Amino acid sequence: MAVFDPSALLALPHDVSVLRALDTGVRAQILQRQLGRTLGHALGVPPAHRIPADRPLRVLGVDSLLALHLKQQLERALEVRTVAHEQLREATLAQLAALLAEEVARPQAAAAAGAAVR
């Protein structure tokens, strides 16, 4: 198995506000596509193949160490808090992308609510 390459996440917009500005569905699609590529590389899946979006990551070969590393990198890259790495292994790629798409939008909503109160 290849080592998880956090630089693959750098293909995401460097400024998370770019992702926040997108529709949730579009944001989830972008995240799912990039996560699929990143996990494919980490798991040694040939580029011509895709990571199935509907199978738990555990079934695809994501072990506890890889899940923990992925969690840490996602939190840094997207400025979010994700699920525990054990729960991350049980999620599908589609579920993880949808969760992250929602979480990426939260800081913007909190900042907007704070500005409205002032």
UniProtKB/TrEMBL annotation:
Pfam families: PP-binding (PF00550). Residues 29-104 form the Carrier domain. The keyword Transcription does not apply. It comes from the Bacteria. Keywords: Phosphopantetheine, Phosphoprotein. InterPro entries: ACP-like_sf, PKS_PP-bd, PP-bd_ACP. The keyword Cell membrane does not apply. Signal peptide: none annotated. This is Acyl carrier protein. It comes from Streptomyces atriruber.
